[in-house]
C-alpha cells in the first residue's frame, strides 16, 4: 500500500494544507508536519469527506466520518524539528499589548477590537541561514536575492540593511542576510526572537563541522524549526548521503531514513534545489501558522544599525506586529526617535510597513543595538514618559539585585519540579569529551536533568558564550581555556566559564551545579571603623578623609558607610587608601590613614564603617 505526503495530497485535491490538517485532526490521525505521510485508506477517507462537503456545501464532521471498526493508519512521524518551534511572532504581540505605556493610539480599543485568532492574517516567515564557515551561506543568500528579489528602482543602490524580502511562487519569505549564528544569538540574547525558521547549510563535500553543530545547537535552544540544506551538490566529490548519515549521529534523522528532519540538496552555484528549499520553507511556515495583526499596536526588533556620515543613524527594524508609519515615535531601550524616513530592503522609499517587513528607519539619535525591541508611542511626551519609567525600573531592579539573596526555591527550582542544568562542554580531545559525557549521563536523576547543549573540541568560542547566555548554561572546559576576548564577552554577559585540568574537579563542579548552588550567595561582613579627624583636599583624588582606625581594619574597595551623629549620610566604596603619600591596600586598627571615598561630602567627626561582601559556603 503506497503512502502519500500530506502536502502533495493537499495540492492534488486543491485544498490548502491547513484544511488538510483540520480533516486529519478530526479523523484522529496523528502527524508531525505537512510532509508526514499518510496511508492510502486515510486518503480515501479524506476524499470522501471533501466530496461530502462539496455536496452539502458545508464542512462535514470529520469525526463522524471515521469508521468505527477500522481506524485509519497513523501518519508517519515527521519533522519534530519543525514542531519544536512556537510561532515566534506571537510573543512580541503579548509583550506589546501588555505594555501600558508605549502603545500606538491608532487602535484605542485594541483588546476589544482585536480580531479573533483565526482572523489575524498570516505573515511571511522570517528565515535565518546558519552553518559552518565556507559552506555557502552567503552564496545561497546571494542566489536567492539575485533570482527572487524584485528589481530595484532605477539608479537605486541597495544598501546592506541586514534582511531582504524574496518573492516566491508560494508568497513572500524574509531572509535575515547577516549569516551566522552570532547575529542570531545576539538578537536572542536580548530576549527577542526574530527568526521563525533556521536553514542549516552543510557543504556536501565537507559534511558536519564544528560550527554546523553549534548552529544546530543554537536553533534547538531557540526552539526554531530547522531545515537542512545540503549545499554544493554540483561538486563531483559531493556526498549528500554521508551528510545524512552524519546527521543521524546527532539524533537528527532525515525523512528518507524514516526520521523527521527535512533535508534538501541544493547548489548555490547552479541553483539546483533552491526552489525546493523555498517550497519547504513555505510549508514549514504554513504549519507554524504564523500570524500577526497589522492593526495591532506596533512592535518590532532591531536587526542592525549603523551611523551614516551624511544621513545619521540608520536602523533596520523588523516589524513583528502592527504597522509602522513615517512620523511615528519609536522607543528603544531608554532612547527614542521619530521616523523621518523609511526605506524597504530593496532601497525604495516607503510610508508604511506591516508585519514581517524589514525596514530601514532614519530618525534615531543614537544607534540602537541588535536585538532590542522597539515599540511606538503616540507623541514625544509619551515616548519620554516610557523612557523615564524604564530608567526608574532599571534602577529599582539594579538596587534590588544588589540587596537580595537567592531563596531556596530560586536556587533549587520549584520543589518537586524536574530541574535542567544546561552545560556546554569543551575539551582537548574527542576522547575526553566522550569520557566526560559518559560520567555526566550517570549523574542524572529524576529531579535533575543534565542537558549538554554542545560538546566540542577546542577552546570555547564567543558563539558558545552567546548560546550559554540565552540558555543560562555554564561552560565547562577540560584542558582548554578561553581566550581573553571570549572571557571578556562572558563577563559582560554574566556567563560562567570554568576550566579544569583534572576530570574529577570538573565532575565536582557539576555536582555543585546539580545541587543547585548555581549562584554563590554573598553576605556582608564587618571589617572595621575609623574616625574622620580632618578632611584634606587632594588635587586629583578630591576630598580625602584623614582618619584614625579605631577598630578592625580598612581595605581598599571595601564598602563604606558614613555616619554623622546618628544618621547614615552616605553608603559607597573605599576607592583609595593612603598611608602618608603611599597608596596601600589595608590599614589596621591603631593607625592613621587617608580614606578616599567615591563621595565628596565627608566631614570632620564622621564615622566611617567598612565592610565587604563574602561568598557564603552552601551546605
Ligand atoms: N561548487 C560550489 N561552490 C560553492 C557553492 N556554494 C558556495 N560555494 C563556494 O564556496 C565558497 C564559500 O562560500 P560562501 O558563500 O562564502 O560561504 P559562507 O558559508 O558564507 O562563508 P563565511 O561567510 O566565510 O562563513 C565560495 O568560494 C563559494 O563560491 C555551491 O553550491 N557549489
Give the class-level CATH name of the largest domain: Alpha Beta
- List of distinct ligands in this structure: guanosine-5'-triphosphate
- Helix fraction, binned, reads 25-40%
**Which ranges are low-confidence, i.e. pLDDT below 50, for 5 or more consecutive residues?**
60-115, 152-158, 404-413
Q: What is the molecular shape?
A: globular
Kindly state the mean pLDDT as a whole number? 80
Please give the CATH architecture of the largest domain.
3-Layer(aba) Sandwich
The CATH topology of the largest domain comes to Rossmann fold
Broad structural category:
alpha+beta
Give a short account of the largest sheet: 6 strands, mixed
Kindly report how far apart the N and C termini lie. 63 Å
Count of DSSP E strands? 29
Going by CATH, what is the homologous superfamily of the largest domain?
P-loop containing nucleotide triphosphate hydrolases
Instruction: Round the Cα radius of gyration to an integer and report it.
Output: 30 Å
Describe the protein in words:
- With 619 residues, the protein is an alpha+beta fold.
- It has five domains: 3-114, no CATH class; 126-288, Rossmann fold (3-Layer(aba) Sandwich), CATH 3.40.50; 301-400, Beta Barrel (Elongation Factor Tu (Ef-tu), domain 3); 408-514, Translation initiation factor IF- 2, domain 3 (Rossmann fold, 3-Layer(aba) Sandwich), CATH 3.40.50; 521-616, Elongation Factor Tu (Ef-tu), domain 3, CATH 2.40.30.
- Helix content is 31%, strand content 31%.
- The strands form six sheets. Strands 4-5-3-6-7-8 form a six-stranded mixed β-sheet, sandwiched between helices.
- β20 (474-478), α17 (484-493) and β21 (497-500) form a beta-alpha-beta unit.
- The protein is globular.
- The structure holds guanosine-5'-triphosphate (GTP).
- The site of guanosine-5'-triphosphate (GTP) has 16 residues, from α8.
- Residues 122-295 form the Tr-type G domain.
- This is Translation initiation factor IF-2.
- It comes from Deinococcus budaensis.
- Keywords: Cytoplasm, GTP-binding, Initiation factor, Nucleotide-binding, Protein biosynthesis.
- Pfam families: EF-G_D2, GTP_EFTU, IF-2, IF2_N.
